Amino acid sequence: MTHLSVWAPAAATVDVVSPGAPTRALHPGGRPGWWHLDLESLHHGDDYAFSLDGGPPLPDPRSAWQPTGPDGPSRVYDHDTFTWTDTAWRGRPLPGGVIYELHIGTFTDDGTFDAAIRRLDHLVDLGATHVELLPVAAFPGRHGWGYDGVCLWAAHEPYGGPDGLKRLVDACHARGLAVILDVVHNHLGPSGNYLPRYGPYFTDRYHTPWGSAVNLDGPGSDEVRAFLVDSALAWLRDFHLDGLRLDAVHELEDRRAVPFLEELSDAVDRLGTALGKPLFTIAESDLNDPHVVTPRESGGLGIHAQWSDDFHHALHALLTGERQGYYVDFGSMSTLAKTLTRVWLHDGRWSSFRGRHHGRPVDTSRMPGHRFLAYLQDHDQVGNRATGDRISALLPPGLLAGAAALVLTSPFTPMLFMGEEWGASTPWQYFTDHTDPALADAVRRGRRAEFAAHGWAERDIPDPQSPDTVRASRLDWSEPLRAPHAALLTWYRTLIRLRRTHPELTDPHLAAVHVTYDEAAGWLMLHRGPFRTALNLADEPATLPMGTANAEVLASWEPTTIDRGLAGTTLTLAPRSTAVARLLT
Questions:
Q1: How far apart are the first and last CA of the chain?
Q2: pTM score, two decimals?
Q3: Which of 291, 402, 458, 530 has its Cα between 20 and 30 A from that of 274?
Q4: Is 7 in contact with 33 (CB distance < 8 Å)?
Q5: Do residues 542 and 576 touch, judged by C-beta distance below 8 A?
Q6: Which residue from 434, 443, 431, 383 is spatially nearest to 139, judged by alpha carbons?
């Protein structure tokens, strides 16, 4: 027997339509606007759809299986039909972890959950502890980043559908890897979205970059919020996921007394208690507001961690020299030093890019560093560039090694973007597979117009709709086996091993972090207890003071020497090189 239920508050009738079976009417009951029906003739694997007031068949908003995509019928999915092997898995907390962000469609040539399983041992050897999947909620077409998802309960069928995602999660847990899923609550994709047919899921009272805002505080918003919370919990409960990354939470328009994010974080914590394992949420937010990750009992929203773009911008601008757009206030060693010790550059100070003051200070005496993610690259910072070029195309190996050292010995939770660990030469470009020709053309023209305003020729901007753009963005798994990529991969593995074996490098106490630098000489040193991460950006060797104690080099990209003289201990770095050292007592 299958229990069908759907919220359609404005409908006078709701029917279920299933091939080879008579149309049956659902009955109102329970909370206002809800319709229900128990059907003994509908089983796992059977297709069905809803008809509102005699209209065309529509997919179930809470469907876990859309075998022909968002525009087709839903298929009954019984979660109990899958056999899990992870019964001994008790989760993996985020503090002390190393996150690896990947996109299923381009992580491998096949672009499926099952193909990703065959590469998991690489992540284990690397030292990653958490796999973060870009969104997998179903969207029209085959290819896309995932941020145009429209079926928020269903795993994208071309990736392998619900069973495929479960196999991947099960395989990750067997290897000790936790799994985080990127979910999008601030908008739905431009096509294949049937939620407005059912109820007031969206509102025109607010405007977002994607159009109408999700209705989080207007009439009917109780059910909209429940829909989003229940979807989040379904991924965690039914697919055994360990955490959620929440896309662009600053675009959630919500003026209710209890914010949606607080409601969601509370629900996730309660589910974790019920399941007996740690569950967590990670927010993408450009508000630079510690309120987001302040525990609820201290008056915050209770999100467990958030991305820290200021750290990325400070590191990227310093190493590349780029100063356009939001990089305008970054690029000096002093700004990088501030983000390493105070989390954000814009913590109430003037933002030239925004034309106003921005952010709020982090209380580093109370807020642990692991609540903030540090990264040299992420999908946005690569894919939103005109040609999707990675930072490995912009920097020599020595500076890539230095950037990796700062990320992986920082007080924050480090995150790597797939292929970063070997300096992948493949770009990661913006691609779509919109089935509506008019929409496809509009996206193509819009992308080209966006970069034409910055001086790019139209012919140089990859066509988002072209299969060639997707193919160009897939990782080349032969690269880690050959020079120069193999050396960088060894370096990443070494740094992660140091982080794992030395507690001082995962100490979250931000007030204990110290940075020294010489802007003119081109060197910077991060102090973590007795550990020193030294980076020389100059084209000449640099000699850095280490104090009076003796020291040893634990890892270095180029030959590094330590000298102890009457004036103290010094560390000499080759040009554009880096090293991690430890003071000896």
A1: 70
A2: 0.97
A3: 291
A4: yes
A5: no
A6: 434
